[in-house]
Design goal:
Blueprint lengths: L1 E10 L4 H18 E18 L2 E13 L1 H13 L3 E9 L18 E2 L2
């Protein structure tokens, strides 16, 4: 089994309920044959460039352990998901679970509250 970090970006107009549904949907997929180590909701952030007519996106980040088939399954489903504009999965030999990319709203000048 390998370690993965997976981030997806939802459309800026998704409600909190829709975001929670996406998180639980993809958490369930990972849990079927893997183990979720950490889930982070980074919130609404500015995009560097416009993507599919969106200037902002809602970022969700997973750290998990599992097989390659999980990644293929997640990416296949995300590619046809209507509310998702981008996604990225990175494979690691080791994961640092203590590292948080957006641990403080004050420290990150790009963080915006809805």
């Amino acid at each position: 089994m390998a370690f993965y970090e997976h981030t997806f970006v939802g459309k800026q107009d998704l409600s909190d309920k829709e975001i929670d549904n996406l998180v639980s949907k993809y958490s369930d997929i990972i849990k079927k044959s893997g183990k979720i180590l950490k889930t982070e909701k980074w919130g609404l952030l500015n995009l560097a460039t416009k993507i599919k007519r969106n200037r902002k996106g809602i970022f969700i980040h997973f750290k998990f352990e599992g097989k390659n088939e999980i990644v293929k399954d997640i990416e296949k489903k995300l590619s046809i998901e209507n509310g998702i504009i981008r996604y990225l999965t990175v494979k690691y030999n080791k994961l640092d679970l203590n590292k948080e990319y957006f641990n403080s709203k004050k420290k990150n000048k790009f963080y915006e509250k809805k």
